[in-house]
Hints:
Blueprint: E1 2-12, E2 20-25, E3 47-50, H1 51-60, E4 69-73, H2 81-93, E5 98-102, H3 112-122, E6 127-131, H4 137-144, H5 149-161, E7 165-171, H6 179-189, E8 195-202, H7 208-214, H8 228-250
Parallel strand pairs: 2-4, 4-5, 5-6, 6-7, 7-8
Antiparallel strand pairs: 1-2, 1-3
Amino acid sequence: MTGHIHSTDSFGTVDGPGVRFVIFFQGCPMRCLYCHNPDTWEPGQGGEKTVEELLAEYDSCKEFYKNGGITVTGGEPLLQIDFLTELLREAKGRGIHTCIDTSGIVFDPDNPALLAKFELLMKYTDLIMLDIKHIDDAEHKKLTGHSNRSILVFARWLCEKETPVWIRHVLVPGITDNDEYLCRLGYFLGELRNMKALDILPYHDMGKAKYKRLGIDYPLENTPPSDKQAALRAREVIMRGIKERLREQQGGKKNVI
């Protein structure tokens, strides 16, 4: 079995705990307006690699990964779930910490065959980095072209499975940088007992050069980058939402987003 791989990074420092070997899978169904990897969108492109070839790349620098491991990202790695499972199974067999950076968009609890594949994959997954693009469904569709329903269901499913999760959320001026949405996001996150970290990532426009090279219009041409201070403030708003949810849980109240 081979996977379609866009590229690899031998020294990832923001892709999970420690220093990590990062594998960018090819193919993604979403079209996030702020995506900085449009060259990973089309499935079936990129180079074809085997599990052994990828792990050989890992082994060539494994002395750097003692406190890290392997992170798969994209694109959307779950589009190639069979190859991904084979890769992480072999990695876990070698004692390597495994992490999947995903939007969760392909999750479908009503598809028994696919759900069985997710069940198997989780056996070899140490950490999920879940990108929640927008908490509001209508706004999520504007931002990505897709509903967020399967993503939120996936988050809850991971909680039931007690799979450790790091939540990532990109702060985009005029789109996600909104106190109402941030508080609602926090309220949702308050039910996730498996959440181990929360990363608020300031929007940047460093992908503009790729869009120009590919002959694609950059959707957020007039949107200014965010900054660390805005991200810190947004995190405080999200934490207020989390605390509100926890208070309601302790008081026995039940609310559903």
